[in-house]
Amino acid sequence: MTNKTKQLNDKTEFYQNLSAQVKSLISDEADPIANMANISALLFDALEQVNWVGFYRVLDGQLVLGPFQGKVACIRIPLGIGVCGTAAQTNTTQRIDDVHQFEGHIACDAASNSEIVIPVQLKGDTIAVLDIDSTEFKRFDQNDQNGLEAIVQIFEQNLTEHEQLLEKSQLK
Ligand code: SME
User: Fold this and answer.
1) Which of 131, 132, 134, 135 to mutate to test the pocket of ligand 1 (most atoms within 8 A of CB)?
2) pLDDT for 14-63, tens place per residue?
3) For the chain, is the Cβ count within 10 Å smaller at the N or the C terminus?
4) Can you name the residues that pair with 113 across neighbouring β-strands?
């Protein structure tokens, strides 16, 4: 087995394991804020070289800070601005190797050098984003993206199953 194949297998296994933990953590819980809080805590603990993990929710046409782990962060971000705002507006994952090269990047923590932001969708609308920052450049590769998108899908599935609670949490 080449080194590269081994790393890939290791990452695949790592994310399969993490996905299973997310599933068991949220499967019996319908409250989206509680689930976002626990997913943030789990990922912050499990991922190496990561200094911020959390959610921004789409509320009244802007992003508003949700449950997170890490240093205090900007509370409101307009759609289309920064990495998070771009992910939310375009409904696409943003995987940024060097945030200093990203026009409009919002530096909540000056120590962050790379970032991945994954939209959380319900019925085709982005209702939140999962944002993960790292102090390393190029911390996230395609395998991290695949693994983290799979985790967001587990959360999306849970949201679909418990949609009626979203209005109460101001997520919809
Ligand atoms: N860097 C983000 C802002 C959020 S913080 O990283 C927590 C951005 O440019 O959207």
Assistant:
1) 131
2) 999 999 999 999 999 999 999 999 999 999 999 999 999 999 999 999 99
3) N
4) none
Residue 106 CB partners (closer than 8 Å, separation 6+): 74, 77, 81, 82, 83, 84
Residue 8 burial (10 A CB sphere; 0-12, 13-18, 19+): middle
Q: Are 158 and 137 in contact (CB under 8 A)?
A: no
Whole-prediction pTM: 0.92
How many domains does the structure of the chain reveal? 1
Mutate to test the pocket of ligand 1, among 53, 56, 77, 132 (most ligand atoms within 8 A of CB): 77
Determine the structural domain holding residue 136 and report its residue range: 3-168
